[in-house]
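User: Could you check the structure of this?
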Amino acid sequence: MIIGSPLLAPQAALRNPVINDVLPTIFHEPWWLDTATRGQWEVVESFHEGSMVGSMPYFCKNKLWFKTGTMPMLTHYLGPAINSGSGSPNTRLLRRIAITRDLVRRLPKTASFSQWMHRGVKDVLAFQMEGFQPSVQFTYELEPAPPDVLWRQMRDKTRNVTRKAQNIYTVDDAIDAEEFIWLYRQNLLALGWDENIDLEVAKQLFIASCLRGRGQGLVARNRDGIAKAAIFCVWDQSVCYYLLSTRTPDSGNGAITLLLWSAIQNAAARGLVFDFYGLGYRGAVMFYTGFGAEIRPRYIISKSTLSFRLLREARGIFRKSDTFLSNELRHFFWATSPPRR
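Assistant: Sure, the predicted structure tokens are below.
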């Protein structure tokens, strides 16, 4: 797939657009990155004969004495956008590797750098050639299909949980950013949990996505009209991403299941793949595959200096990905844990 767009690069490409193909993901779009990073993102670009053939956005922050490249908040995937042109598969492969290596060499010097690659990145050979360590995490994807087909694909247990929840809750999209963030914060307080994401940034992403017709909140309300659970999803030209979820401690484990079923149907109606962005442990596998989702690999590239690795080991800082693991464990808790009494 040829990917790339002048929207990817706020520098030369916006002044002289030369790539007019689709963006890899919504997370690559400037308005998203501006919001998620408070305007602190950058981009490297690769040119051939005056035309931009590749670009790669990135986000750096300072941690103690170190400059680190990491994923922006609530940004599932990044990675390069490459226009590999025409020709045989081998020709395009070699061209893609060359462009990617050029982009990598233009990245700033950092003590640590890591990114999660989007679904269009089928290999990370170029990163490996430049000294990056590749690894793999897994997500769960559900291809679009008619509602009756999607329903039949679900496990019996998941269907039963959904049916029971339908007798308790009504689902609608009449939830705005203020109510969603208020509900999210109240549920954290009820559980005694700290805010592990910047909820002001989350609110602005909610607003910006909805204004562009690229996001939707769904809420489950009880018979008294009280919001008991909510999720927020965003989408691009091909994929709908499960981004945030929250539920009250007394809502039961079916509320999020019902909301996800509604979001899956909405995504399918748009012809979009639904990406659960899930973890690889047993509970997540059971929950997400219960909807009929299939496991898909996602590449991660990372590189760090010896001094950074030593300090990380000594002090236990930078545990896992601060934008992935904690958020997804929370998603999974909301979806599957029993209500607390």
